[in-house]
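Chapter summary example.
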Amino acid sequence: MTDVSVIGCGNMGSALIEALWDAGNEVAVWNRTREKAEALAGPRVSVADSVGEALTASPVTLISVTDYGATREVLDGEDDRLAGSTLIQLSNGTPDAARAMAERVTRADGDYLDGTVFSYPKAVGTEQLFIMYSGDAEVFEAHEELLERLGGTASYLSEDPGATSALDLAAVPPAMLMANAIWQGAKICEIEGVPFETFAEVVRNLVPAIAEDALRKEADPDLPADPDKVEVSVRQAAEDADRPIEYFESVGLDAGALRAFKRVFEAGVEEGRGEHDVSCVAELHAEHPR
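The structure predicted for these 290 residues follows.
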């Protein structure tokens, strides 16, 4: 019997295995492509011959594959091996898929935790690792010490197994849009001869301020429709989008994201919300070309 099993030896799975091994754990691993698992084998890392063997080799199994669909495929025909063990999902999915997986594992007399990794594989094993878990609180407490060996702090969110997936999906838009916007901004500075260091300083000051302001507005549900609190109206945002769109296209940058937001703001004007604060954007809907 090993301390923990890991199913999935991709970039994240390999990092998890290394962190667990480095913390002194005996680890059983399995991967669809056996060669990837064998590359990680060592004094405290053994390769399981099957998913079933990996599930029964340890009292707890971490699964890190592409998504919940891949998890379902991996576990097909193996539900009887879940009895008496704990499955901790660290793959990407949706809240409903997480709840369905929790129900499946529980029905098989196993325990389930859903985890979302808010870090890149390079953060595993360091204090920068950020993982949040949801599901049965007692199950989390029982394995908290093991989970903290992955690095950083193991944080618990909710009894609802779908909560961490919901939080993951909520974090995607700001993270994706912010990163791409920064890269495009850096390209503008390169085109126009503005020092990157200067741009970096502006971003480091501007981004936290924008985030705090957006969160402040979101905390006040009456703000968007209160004329005394409107700072940037939906109508103004639609009009202001023209200048950066024109510039982006003039220097060869893709203005698709800007055009998408412009369409949303224009739709808001058409819906009669032109004088509302732009912070109501999540309530606006527009038709977008596919």
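To summarize the output: The first helix runs from residue 11 to 22.
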